[in-house]
Amino acid sequence: LYDLFLEMPPPLAPRRLRLEVAERMLADGTVHKSLDLSSLPAIIEQMRALGVQAVGVSLLHSYRNPAHERALGDALAASAPDLVVSLSAEVVPEIREYERTSTTLANVYVRPLVQTYLQRLEERLRALGMRDASLYVMLSSGGTATVETAQRYPIRLIESGPAAGALAAAEYGALTKRSNLLSFDMGGTTAKACIIENGEPLISADFEVARVYRFKRGSGLPVRVPVIEMIEIGAGGGSIARADSLGLLKVGPDSAGAQPGPACYGRGGGAPTVTDADLLLGYLDPSFFLGGKMRLDVEAAERAIGGLGERLGLSVIDTAWGIHQVVNENMAGAARIHAVERGKDPRAFPLFAFGGAGPVHAYRVAKILDLPELVVPLGAGVTSALGFLVAPLAFDYVRSFFSPLHDLNFDHVTALLGEMEDEGATTLTAAGVAREQIAYRRTAEMRYRGQGHEVPVPLPHGDLHAAMLPELEAAFEAVYRRLYGRVAEGVPLEVLNWRVVASGPRPEINLAAEAVGASDATRAIKGERDIYLPEQGGFAAVHVYDRYALAPGTAFDGPAVVEERESTTIIGGGMVAVDTYRNLIVALKGEDTRD
User: Fold this and answer.
1) Rounded Cα gap, residues 60 and 302, in angstroms
2) Is 75 within 8 Å of 37 (Cβ atoms)?
3) Which of 151, 312, 399, 422 has the fewest CB atoms below 10 angstroms from its CB?
């Protein structure tokens, strides 16, 4: 906010591509000036001359009355059917024209690409013989949608991959009676943390794309779509370490990616990365990366880390440990802020770690955060894929209707909510969900008068009426107090937006619980390896366990290494147990997890 040198991202539609039509809708939805389409032929001719292929339509106050936008959309479809068109009243019918326009432009910007991709994907699946199956696409809010819906609103897919990981964490939390978790997903480029509370990930409607400063809020283009709320941390296996202008060690946000990748990949990369550091610390087996399909080059990692160490005045191993420690501290600090900003105490949340690099770093991150437990699922490197299987068909709807709470037109709001529920029913029944199986979740975005931002407040089902005012006020105060620790007595309330999530039944998957019996952990030992343990002042030999040989009921003490094809779990200490779903449960505060 106070950075005088802040750069902003270039707009998707530069000034020369922002074209106008004559009309004016007022904030209450009444027509001040009727839509004049006489200029449309000239506008279309101008767009063709400029090579325009996709158009976002965003008129003032269309969230209250979309008639003009719809008429303009129909006229464009009739006069220029080759153009891809998105209407803001359909993409995000919500107050605040800048965010609404930005979201609509982002949606139509990617529509041609996503449409082509999904059409080809369906064609290839049919060619493979999958003619009777339906293709569904993950949404960033944690639901799934049909291909038709995804093609129309591709901006809803923007965070769908990480969202699937959070859903997988929630599913495991339900299975293991851990309704509150801190999901920690670390891959090759970034790490993401997400709070799972009462079995559900937190949802936000604010997101940014095209940030000039990758992790600086406010430096990107705003997108108003529902997303599972996560904090992104610029740390992954490919994150590059460097010495800054003061000679201090920094890691990320730049990444070596997959090509050329870390130096140890042997693909031409020479920059020191987190993976190179983890390899030199003994946390990765150079002959068992990807289950042995790819051998890591230890000497290349030593050259890369050693070069950085010379600039820092540190040995190769001290530099490698410094990289590992800086990454862990960065991730723990970001996760702590993410939790505290939402009124949560992270110390009450077990850490659920997955992703290719997550289990390598999770133990140290959990210790820094003073968490009670670490949970690592079987197949941690591909756990996000499970999230796709447990995601229900669902879609979110929003309508803006601003009003002081005490002057609220309850009949109008009930009609708005009913309209959104009907839209949800139409969308989901078209996807094959029986109407009686559809569930609806309602929220109102409320604030104190004079505030600039709102908080989501759950709403009851059925018709709303004036007698509910005390109930709505109490619900707002409960949410506000949980977030900020206080309420403002006597300040009137306002409501800005109304939301409905329509969802089908959650798919059932067969993660069958296995019987827990007495199992000898020594049968799973595949060898020993020296790993860096700061508690012991350097390298120490520890057992290396075969993840697939650890049966439910197995228990052992750390420190240890547990290896599987897609990931490696580093356990610095504590008691470890394998539960009925083959999760590794690591006690971080001395409790015995073996019962």
Assistant:
1) 59
2) yes
3) 422
Taking alpha carbons only, the member of 578, 587, 445 closest to residue 176 is 578
Q: Taking the CA atoms of the chain, what radius of gyration do you get in angstroms?
A: 26
Cα separation of 109 and 252, whole Å? 29
Tell me whether residue 545 is exposed, middle or buried, using C-beta atoms within 10 angstroms of its C-beta: 0 to 12, 13 to 18, 19 or more: buried
CB 493 within 8 A of CB 408: no
Distances (CA, A) of 474 to 342, 479, 480, 489: 19, 9, 10, 12
- Quick check: 100 and 224 in contact, CB under 8 A? yes
**Sign (positive/negative) of CA torsion 367, 371, 373, 378?**
negative
Q: According to the model, what pLDDT value does residue 593 have?
A: 45
Token look-up 């959104």 returns: 420
Structure tokens belonging to residue 142: 């944690």
Sole residue written with tokens 């153009």: 83
Q: Output the pTM of the full model.
A: 0.86
Residue 324 to residue 279: CA distance in whole angstroms: 11
Phi, psi of 100 (to 5 degrees): -65, -45
* pLDDT of res. 215: 61
Phi, psi of 511, deg, nearest 5: -95, 80
Q: Is the pLDDT of residue 535 over 80?
A: yes
Q: Residue 3 above 80 pLDDT? A: no
- Are the beta carbons of 555 and 575 closer than 8 angstroms? yes
With bands split at pLDDT 50, 70 and 90, how would you rate the model's confidence at 594? very low
Strand (E) or helix (H) holding 582: none
Residue 172 or residue 510, greater confidence: 172
What confidence score (pLDDT) does residue 1 get?
67
Nearest to 349 by CA among 205, 228, 197: 197
How far, in Å, CA of 386 to CA of 379, rounded?
Answer: 10
Predicted local confidence at residue 214, as pLDDT = 63
Longest dimension (CA), the chain: 82
The full DSSP string for 230-296 is -EEES--TTEEEEE-TTS-EEEEEEE-TTTT-SGGG-SS--S-BHHHHHHHTTSS-TTSBGGGTB--
Say if strands 575-578 and 584-587 run parallel, antiparallel, or are unpaired: antiparallel
Q: Between these two residues, 155 and 159, which has the higher pLDDT value?
A: 155
Measured CA to CA, the distance from residue 23 to residue 461 in angstroms comes to: 38
Token pair, residue 582, equals: 């083959």
Name the nearest CA neighbour of 336 among 348, 346, 327, 325.
346
What DSSP state is assigned to residue 11? P
Mean per-residue pLDDT, 48-67: 95
Give the Å distances, CA to CA, from 219 to 142, 208, 209, 295.
Answer: 26, 8, 9, 40
| Per-residue exposure over 176-206, b if at least 16 CB sit within 10 Å of its own CB, e if not | bebeebbbbbbbbbbbbbbbbbeebbbbebe
Number of H helices, E strands in the chain: 13, 29
Asked whether the beta carbons of 494 and 405 are under 8 A apart, the reply is yes
Tell me the CB-side half-sphere exposure of residue 539, using CA atoms within 13 A: 14
- Coil, helix or strand at residue 25: strand
Nearest to 544 by CA among 568, 557, 566, 562: 562
Backbone angles phi and psi of 144, in degrees to 5: -125, 160
At 371, the amino acid letter reads: L
